[in-house]
């Protein structure tokens, strides 16, 4: 083939790379080509350097650490867009930036550079706290008539990037239904090779009411007084290992002290709360956590996968009543389709040994993210549980609303709306003597709703759900 023909093919290939990268949110600037050199899509280009702009607080090496390639690497031409998008995703998933653009520049027949342009987030947040004693807004409103006596209030101070190395510091001061003073500091990259880190945290809390049992209809029953009925303090330290991009391991050791009102463990309420006649318990906690993460957006994934495995040990004395080994595993799969359609599948399971656990250790479904949509009013205790969730959604609206702030970063407020339908399955096993209406049976629910995504990937979900009991309702989650 004549030289001009080969150069035309090279230019065409690089233009296709440009179009693909631009469609993924990157920008390409090709300044010069060597006219007399040949390039084909299976050939390789050598990466000369990575140019970083836009970072004022964040250290450049923290950004470079998230790149899949480094200067001196030879990259197959057809894989350049993949490397750019992978780098963009991992840099964005540090949660340090509101926008990240990664693109090849100064491309020649033999070499290329990479330009990384970032827009940093606000890192310092004094956030007012309005915290419910209940597990959801619906439960607070329906069961307790939105009583302000069940509200905790205060302030939480965050610094999300204290030294520019993605280290995070937080102090919490809360009063009201619950009193809480706590702190945590996490430095994920504390060694020169940026593969190891540490975290420390501790706190003291008091609360005026705690669940002391779950009734046969899977409602939580509270023991409460005007004074505090539970006092607790804890301290933890962790070692973090992240030697690659997708894999993270965390080893945690801690100690916890708990003291509850004597009446809670009496025959009148629940002598099985601790399976002990002692109202005070001190015990260590050890945990190993393995995470595999490869998603486009860690805060609201639309493509990729995550997987988690956790083994936790509470108590070291096997004769003590606070003694358990729990094994937990989970995975999340996210798929993108044409025309802005998306699906997600989540599966998680947990088992606690031995099965003869006190009420304090029997939480299964209905807590935090482990709930079936439509069963928000219920808790299903257990020593073994499984949960599967499926979502199908479509992006139906994306707008930017002017804020009239004199800031390039926050001059517009983004809003993205997804319409979705969903279905959930769950199961929680418990010993026969603790059996309830929803234990030891297949649970299922479904519904439809919308997710509203805005600045910092904050999400508000409005869902209309129904469950296997024939109940239905509108639920709010954030």
What is the structure about, briefly put?
With 478 residues, this protein is mainly beta. The protein is built from four helices and 22 strands.
Describe the model.
With 478 residues, the protein is mainly beta. The protein has four helices and 22 strands. It has helices at residues 3-23, 60-64, 80-92, 137-144, and strands at 44-53, 74-76, 97-105, 111-120, 124-132, 151-159, 168-176, 178-187, 196-207, 209-214, 220-224, 230-241, 247-260, 280-295, 304-314, 324-337, 341-353, 384-402, 412-429, 443-453, 459-467, 472-477. The strands form three sheets. A 16-stranded antiparallel β-sheet has the order 5-6-7-8-9-12-13-14-15-16-17-18-19-20-21-22. Helix 1 runs parallel beside helix 3. The longest helix is centred in the N-terminal third of the chain and has 21 residues, at 3-23. It is globular and about 80 Å long. It starts with a helix and ends with a strand. Residues 1-38 have low confidence and may be disordered.
Distance between the termini: 61 Å
Number of helices: 4
Strand order of the largest sheet: 5-6-7-8-9-12-13-14-15-16-17-18-19-20-21-22
In total, the number of strands is 22
* Poorly predicted runs of 5 or more residues: 1-38
Kindly provide the radius of gyration, computed on alpha-carbon positions and rounded to a whole number of angstroms. 26 Å
Instruction: Summarize the amount of helix as a percent range.
Output: under 10%
Question: What kind of sheet is the major sheet?
Answer: 16 strands, antiparallel
Instruction: Output the helix-strand order.
Output: HEHEHEEEHEEEEEEEEEEEEEEEEE
């Amino acid at each position: 083939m004549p030289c001009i023909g080969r150069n035309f093919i090279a230019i065409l290939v690089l233009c296709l790379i440009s179009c693909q990268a631009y469609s993924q949110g990157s920008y390409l600037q090709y300044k010069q080509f060597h006219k007399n050199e040949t390039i084909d899509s299976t050939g390789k280009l050598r990466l000369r350097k990575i140019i970083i702009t836009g970072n004022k607080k964040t250290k450049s090496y923290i950004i470079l650490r998230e790149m899949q390639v480094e200067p001196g690497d030879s990259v197959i031409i057809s894989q350049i867009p993949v490397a750019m998008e992978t780098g963009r995703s991992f840099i964005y998933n540090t949660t340090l930036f509101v926008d990240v653009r990664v693109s090849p520049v100064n491309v020649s027949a033999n070499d290329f550079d990479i330009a990384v342009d970032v827009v940093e987030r606000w890192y310092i947040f004094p956030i007012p706290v309005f915290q419910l004693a209940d597990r959801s807004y619906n439960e607070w409103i329906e069961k307790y008539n939105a009583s302000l006596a069940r509200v905790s209030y205060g302030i939480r101070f965050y610094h999300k990037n204290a030294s520019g190395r993605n280290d995070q510091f937080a102090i919490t001061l809360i009063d009201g239904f619950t009193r809480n003073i706590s702190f945590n500091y996490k430095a994920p990259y504390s060694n020169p090779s940026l593969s190891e880190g540490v975290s420390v945290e501790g706190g003291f809390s008091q609360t005026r009411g705690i669940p002391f049992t779950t009734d046969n209809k899977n409602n939580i029953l509270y023991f409460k007084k005007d004074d505090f009925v539970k006092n607790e303090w804890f301290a933890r330290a962790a070692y973090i290992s992240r030697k690659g991009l997708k894999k993270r391991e965390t080893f945690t050791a801690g100690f916890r002290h708990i003291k509850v009102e004597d009446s809670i463990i009496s025959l009148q309420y629940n002598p099985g709360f601790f399976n002990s006649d002692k109202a005070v318990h001190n015990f260590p906690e050890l945990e190993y956590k393995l995470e595999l993460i490869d998603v486009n957006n860690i805060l609201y994934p639309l493509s990729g996968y995550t997987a988690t495995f956790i083994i936790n040990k509470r108590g070291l004395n096997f004769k003590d009543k606070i003694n358990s080994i729990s094994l937990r595993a989970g995975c999340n799969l996210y798929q993108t389709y044409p025309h802005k359609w998306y699906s997600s599948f989540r599966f998680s399971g947990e088992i606690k040994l031995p099965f003869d656990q006190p009420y304090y250790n029997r939480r299964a479904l209905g807590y935090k993210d482990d709930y079936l949509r439509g069963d928000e009013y219920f808790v299903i205790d257990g020593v073994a549980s499984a949960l599967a969730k499926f979502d199908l959604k479509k992006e139906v609206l994306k707008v930017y609303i002017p804020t009239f702030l004199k800031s390039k970063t926050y001059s517009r407020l983004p809003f993205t709306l997804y319409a979705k339908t969903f279905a959930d399955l769950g199961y929680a096993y418990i010993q026969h003597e603790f059996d309830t209406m929803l234990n030891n049976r297949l649970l299922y629910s479904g519904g439809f709703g919308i997710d509203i995504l805005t600045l910092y990937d904050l999400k508000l979900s409005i869902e209309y759900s129904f469950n296997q009991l024939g109940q239905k309702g509108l639920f709010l989650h954030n």
